[in-house]
Write a structure and sequence with these properties.
The chain has 4 helices and 6 strands. The chain is α+β, with helices and mostly antiparallel strands.
Amino acid sequence: MDCPRCKLALVPDTYEGVAVDLCRECWGVWLDTGELETILEAQEIQFSPEEKKLVLEGRRARIHASHTPVACPKCSVRMERLFLDAEVYLVIDRCPRHGIWLDTGEIKAIQAMAEASQTVSRLLVRKIQGRT
Ligand SMILES: [Zn+2]
Ligand SMILES: [Zn+2]
């Protein structure tokens, strides 16, 4: 499986005990369907208030960063763009059949948002699963 942005082979890695596929070039990660939920449930990373502020402010600063659509690394179909705006503006790429692509920093931003409250966490998971 190749990185949808760099086209380089993704390498197996683990994040919070979950097997993910990482791109060593852009540090994006591919998560199969259901893996993000597992990561959010594990929530082993506990952000200090300072870290959380940095993560969230980092995302705010990148609001206008360009975000081009990418193709699913598994089926090559152009992925849907999912807007998550609970606390910060995030655009996530999702293939309804295979999973989600997270650009560098996005996984931490999601965790920081999810850690903020259980309600936000559930909301994010529902959105990512395509349920409203
Ligand atoms: Zn890449
Ligand atoms: Zn796909």
